[in-house]
Structure formats: C-alpha cells, structure tokens
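Recap from last week: sequence in, structure out.
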Amino acid sequence: MKVEDFFNQQNIIDLSFFNFYNAITACYYAKDNLEILKVNKNFLSFFPILGNVNNAYFPDVLEQIGLPAKQIEEFIHDINEKGTVLIPEIKISINDEERVYSLLSTRTKNESFTYLNGVQGQFVDRTAEFNLRKERQNLLEEKIRDREIIEEKSRQLESLATRLAKYLSPQIYQSIFENENEGEQTHARKNLTIFLSDIVKFTDLADTLEPERLAAVINTYLSEMSAIAVECGGTIDKFIGDAVLIFFGDPETEGEQEDALKCAEMAIRMMKRVGELNKHWKKLGVVDGLKVRMGISTGFCTVGNFGSDLRLDYTVLGSPVNLAARLQT
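Predicted structure tokens:
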C-alpha cells in the first residue's frame, strides 16, 4: 500500500489548502486537468458573478470573467509546458467598475500524495495600486506644480505596496512590484565568512521582562547590530529570535582575506556597542545587562534562493554555518 492510502483524501486536500482560506487574495486549487476543486471566500467576493465554480474548468472561468482568448491559450500552454504562469494585469468590469488583478499559478507535485498533484493559484487585487499609479501619472503629465499632492500619492502607493508585501512571498512581490521577469533560480558555491550571534539566557529574559520593555531591548539590539553589519559590508541573512546570522563574500566581495577581516572588525564593534548600551538596557530592567555570544567561521558554502514554489529565502547553507554556531562564546 502507498502512504496516501492511509489518509482520507479530502482531509489531506483541505489541509493543503488551509493557508489560503483566510488569505487576502482570491485563491483556487484545481486538478491536473484544471478542474477546480476548491476556492477560498475571497474568490467568490472578488468575482460574485461566477457563483459556484467547483468542478468548473478553470480556463472557462477565465473566459467568463472576460480574459481574452489569446491570454487563455497562453495560460494553458505555460501551465502545461512551464508549470508556472504570471499574468501581471487582468482588467475586469464588475458592476460598471473596472478592476485590475494579477494572476499567479503554479503546478504542485507531491510524490507521497498523488492527489495533491494539481494547480494552485491566486488573484491579487491591484486596483488601488493601478488607480494610484494612474492618478500620479496624470498629475505628472499635466505638470501640476503642487508637489505635495504628488508626494502624497507616492506615499499612499508605497504604503499600499508595503502592506501587500506582508502577505505575499518575496518572489511574487518582486514579480508584481518590480516587474522582474521570472527566471531560473541560481545557486553558487563560494568561500564565505559566516558570523552567528545570540544573547546569553535570552529565554529567561523574555520570560521575566514586560512585553513593551522586551520589545524595546530586542529592537534596539537588532537595530544597532544591523547598522554595524551594513557599515562593515556584511549581508544580513536572518534574525531568529535574538540570534543574528550574517555572512561576508556575497553578493559583493573584496577578497576572501578582506571579507574575513571585515567580519572580525564587525564583531569587535558589536561587542563594544553592546557594552555601551548595557547602561541603557539596565534601566529597562535587564539587571545584569546583555551578554552576547559570537562565532565566526570561514569556508565554502552554497548561497542562493532556497524554499518552495510559494516562498523563497535567500540564505547560505553549509558546514561553516554549523561551525560558527558551535564556536559561539
């Protein structure tokens, strides 16, 4: 028997679609043959004219909402041949109002549960963004001298993009807002210098400090360490709670030796800055001040985008990362 035979098929499909139920985008899941199995609540609210679309052929749905036949043909071709589709602009008239959407779709593959092999996608409502862009363009074309209006529209557009970015994965965000063409993800083997640090007994600190004071301490700490890292030319990989992972040598390098020296300089500056800030942190309730463990390691790592079809993370992998963690003192 296969692994999938021990589980209820409908329950597995429901779980695979769980993260989309409350998404701000209009999401759908279809079989390999593009027969729709599930949609979320926003799908029906985005397109009220469709009604129940379960078991409908997805290209027929695209035709019903007004997508041109040529684009539908391109969608079918790309999803079958490339496995992914990005249609950045779909204009639809709903109740005499023109709305603009982006459609992102990808084929899903799962060797353990073959009935999860299908197509997942989502419509992103970009109407407000396009309206703001149009308004801003009109203002520029008309050469309106009131610069405050243009700046306000720009701030509104930036705020909208920032809010949407919190809900969308980075690669989708870049495809939509930076208009980058979808390409193959590259990875490289490089000799990097890895820096890893964390705060000693941070868990005890988190359990004793009030939330507001804890936030003030950790935010100040991470901000100060980040500023030093950037000044020294380091690439901030990620924050994991109180831990900080930084590497030198990618995407820019000044040579392996110089990268390592800059990392060491950064660590020394960080230790000095922590000592300077301890007086401030003690006033916030950190009785003994913060003590930070640091580890540095140089070696060959693989660096690039790693993750799933839905979310990627630009990070570094390899034994030097583990060694830096073990060297933390």
